[in-house]
């Protein structure tokens, strides 16, 4: 299958990863990884389990601090950045194992995504007065648009702990979207979903990319999905970069076939 | 110098006592994830029961007209502690499976209240001098030859504590139940799935910590009588726990010694300048300062956070 | 049937975000406030004020504070007694050093001072978590009580070490000291509690409350979506200590009139407030009130049943009371670990359907 025809202008480099190395004690999770992501692009990171994909995302949004190398986002080069600062500069993400706030409602969870854009102080909030109340309603409107977009109106006030898995994934995407990010990191957004849920999720990801122009970096194991929706792909294996390119190029790369696709293909048939 | 050494030694001995109580906490926390606030009250209750069995003015004497010899009294008290452990499992823990740790913690505070009230009603709240034949007074040998003051009782306490730790280590490492205990401590569900009975294990663990509490009760009781304040040694053991880690047996021992020494030295050398009686909080501050440097405690593993 | 939100449509987000969006809740709260402000003051006497009503109000406020920290932000604290002591001693020093200061300002200032102390003792929470933190807060408890016991400046070098609250007026009514009318003292406390309960509700449904809950539910994820753990945890400590400090100030100056640190603010206070929070329901404003009512009324009821009803000796009754309290707490935790607030929710659910449950 080929690329769905999307009317987007792929822009200049928004994120450049340069020679990143990360190790935990003696374990080398990432070795000299470099790649760059262009604006408005859907970029996939693939590779077998333990290849270092999640570590890569964790480096990009500042949760892990790589020992070597730099990350340039929107023209700003940095090596070590605090996660909250990364979030403020426009990076949002979802997690491999759902990391929602289970005691809170869907609405409140998505509202937390607006946190970085809210500013009234604690005293005004305690009085729920003037600017504080106004701010709350303004952000509520943005969040309601996200809720509308993801078609989760019905579960607006349900505690997320009670929602089924697929819905939780959707709420998590909503929380990331509420931050109106420039770069959206999705860590296995379709893991554990059935085929309908996957189709929905694909549609949402492409719509986000299409309508808001958000750059997307995603990790996914479902090769069909990856090849369908991404513009370019980077392949990691044991912390090293095997290949980078369009889905078709990567599909034809012998290293990749040996290291990964062949194995995955055998698994699928077995 | 001699005085400083005496201070350190007496601190070490006090530390052994703290370690004994902390050990009871660690055993229960490891095996059932329960932060058992009632551990101090356990020691009090064991001390009270033992006193009742071996003295002339308890229920036992009144009912049967004779008092038990010390060794039989200790065995009988152990029996009481096993019954307490069994009741705790039957009436409390069993109904609180899968609850939040804080709920379990609160329930042990309830348990502490309950046992405290029960102990008072059954045995009265006056101070009881517990005499199980442990030596007391200063060690004459050291005092005469080196002019060095060490309490005999404290030396004995240290020896007994060491023996206790060795016995527990063997129990944990070499016996079938010990292995099951370690399995439960590691992962409740996995242990259940290989056929280990969680309930039995909990009764065993609570009994063992009841036994540790009994030893602590005997030691503290011999030193300063069995009385309500005995239950407060739980509060002394808590800084030991955060210093050594909630799950580490060696941590409990080393932590206890550090706290014991630190407290005594601080009380004698720094206390007079800031008004004295600092031992109530000094241990906590010491442990806290330590934690800020090493959040996982003395023997805890480095925590790698992941998402 | 009685509790139905059907038909109550909201046409704006402002209306949907109102503090009590459902009509019945507004009636209920309104009725309680009318009784509390308009009826009770005419019937109150010293016994009711001291043994039940002010007792309840002070602990409800302290529980609100602890609930913000433990129930909403997930940081377990056992230092409540120590922080109450800070509030009490701050109010004492302010009243005696600045006799002209308005008494309402005194109470508020005591809260702010306690908030500062709370932030200081909250700093370790940035590095340590869970029970380690709970034990660490005991450092605050023991240190503060020791401090107020040992340093004469705090109790103005009074020979007994006690502090005694001098008489003070608010709007011309005496609210502290032995001559104060119970109704004045009661209304003074009630006003504080109502205002701050309302403020707490506002906080927990706004940005700050969401950040607290995010930290509680999953601190790493919270940090990764841009919530600063430092800010969230320290504001929780500050607000919580502020409430507890005000509770401590009222406890000392309006309720007891005298205090002495080792008795009045010992660790059992910390446990008592924690019990209120757990029994009321973690993370529920309403629960703090229900828990306080439960824990205040329980000992009184038990005592009157045992001493007056069965003729127990007072001493034995005291021990039996401790024992019963312990077992009731365990029983309660077994039956409803989510607290009275959950029972209340279930009741509302039942009322909504009653009498046609299907």
Account of the 3D structure:
The complex is a heterotrimer of chains A (270), B (307) and C (358). Chain A contains ten helices and ten strands. The two termini of chain A are 24 Å apart. In chain A, the strands form two sheets. Chain A has a six-stranded mixed sheet, with helices on both faces. Chain A has a four-stranded antiparallel sheet with strand order 2-1-4-5, with helices on one face. Chain A is an alpha/beta fold and 270 residues long. Chain B is mainly α. Chain B has a single domain (2-293), classed as ABC transporter involved in vitamin B12 uptake, BtuC. Helices cover 72% and strands 0% of the residues of chain B. Chain B has 13 helices and no strands. Chain C is an all-alpha fold. Chain C has 15 helices and four strands. In chain C, helix 3 runs parallel beside helix 7 and helix 4 (80-97) crosses helix 10 (229-256). The chains are: A alpha/beta (270), B mainly alpha (307), C mainly alpha (358). Chains B and C meet through helix 5, helix 11 and helix 13 of B and helix 6, helix 9, helix 12 and helix 14 of C.
Key terms:
heterotrimer, B: 307 residues, mainly alpha, ABC transporter involved in vitamin B12 uptake, BtuC, 72% helix, 0% strand, globular, C: 358 residues, two-stranded antiparallel ribbon, two-stranded antiparallel sheet, 15 helices, 4 strands
